[in-house]
Amino acid sequence: ATEEFFRSIRTAAGDAQFANFLNLNTGSTLCFVIDTTLSMEDDIAASKDRAIEIISSRLGSPTAPSNFILVPFSDPHVGPAVVTNDPEEFETAIGNLQASGGGDAPEYSLSALQIALARSLPGSTVFVFTDAGAKDAGLVESVTSLGIQKNIKVRLNVPLN
Hints:
single chain, 6 helices
């Protein structure tokens, strides 16, 4: 009876959700924090392409993530975060990003990074794509502390132009 019960849950929820339900995933999160302000207009396509390259390089490998998070930010908006186990859904969300708004630098990058760190699994990697400094620099200590506590690597990607 117990075996049938768990089989019915697995069938209804799917393998990925079932593994999460039983806390079987010991993997990591692949997370992107992407600046979508108008100043990124010339760089947003390259940022999206780079993000998709990173995703593709990890799929099917021993370091394949168990989930994906995207936290876009502009001015004054941060998020909403896209959290999924489906790499195709994640790539679509990245592909749908467009540069708009802003008009001033710096931006709310640390607020977006804080959301990313809070939602990511320990031992994960967060890639940040931005061309501006942090408007919310008062968060630097709490964001740094959270990243250290969860052993999360943060990789900053800045356009070269």
